[in-house]
């Protein structure tokens, strides 16, 4: 019963589930820094995301199972696959494949920037949202703020 800081006259409650991949993705710790022999102001840092088919399937399947238990059976996948063309494209492919095992669950796919706007402008349309570690981290803070609390 926390009142939202946003005034949505047609929205009586915010009721969605955000499922976050928490063992892979952008926070997997793959990468490093190299400054040996590069000289002053020439440090290089590389941070990579790690997506496995099994890891993607595990969290996506969990999202579908969660959606089956809710009133509106809908899963929305959020990526940035238009710019992250390897790991997040794999995520999209796994989402598409897994969705065929759940014909009773409606699906939707959004890019993260558009989904951030959707959270603010049309939160009533959300049900179960599944995203990678970084993207769901950001969306969980945004969703909490919409409900009037911290992430």
Automatic annotation (TrEMBL):
Record's InterPro entries? ICDH/IPMDH, IsoPropMal-DH-like_dom
Domain Isopropylmalate dehydrogenase-like span(s) in chain numbering: 2-151
Q: Under the GO molecular function aspect, what terms does this record hold? A: metal ion binding; oxidoreductase activity
Show the Gene3D superfamilies listed in the entry. Isopropylmalate Dehydrogenase
An example Pfam family from this entry, by short name, is Iso_dh
Q: Which SUPFAM superfamilies match?
A: Isocitrate/Isopropylmalate dehydrogenase-like (SSF53659)
The protein's UniProt keywords, in alphabetical order, are:
Manganese, Metal-binding, NAD, Oxidoreductase
Q: Which cofactors does this protein require?
A: Mn(2+); Mg(2+)
Question: What is the protein's name according to its record?
Answer: Tartrate dehydrogenase
Question: Organism source for this protein?
Answer: Staphylococcus cohnii
């Amino acid at each position: 019963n926390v009142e939202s800081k946003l005034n949505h006259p047609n929205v009586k409650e915010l009721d969605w589930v955000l499922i976050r991949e928490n063992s892979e993705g952008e926070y997997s710790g793959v990468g490093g820094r190299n400054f040996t022999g590069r000289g002053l102001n020439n440090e290089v840092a590389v941070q990579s995301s790690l997506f496995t088919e099994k890891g993607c399937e595990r969290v996506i399947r969990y999202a579908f199972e969660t959606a089956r238990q809710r009133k509106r059976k809908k899963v929305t996948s959020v990526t940035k696959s238009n710019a992250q063309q390897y790991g997040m494209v794999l995520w999209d492919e796994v989402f598409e494949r897994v969705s065929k095992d759940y014909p009773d669950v409606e699906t939707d796919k959004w890019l993260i920037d558009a989904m951030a706007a959707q959270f603010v402008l049309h939160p009533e349309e959300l049900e179960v949202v599944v995203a990678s570690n970084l993207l769901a981290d950001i969306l969980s803070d945004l969703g909490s703020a919409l409900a009037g609390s911290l992430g």
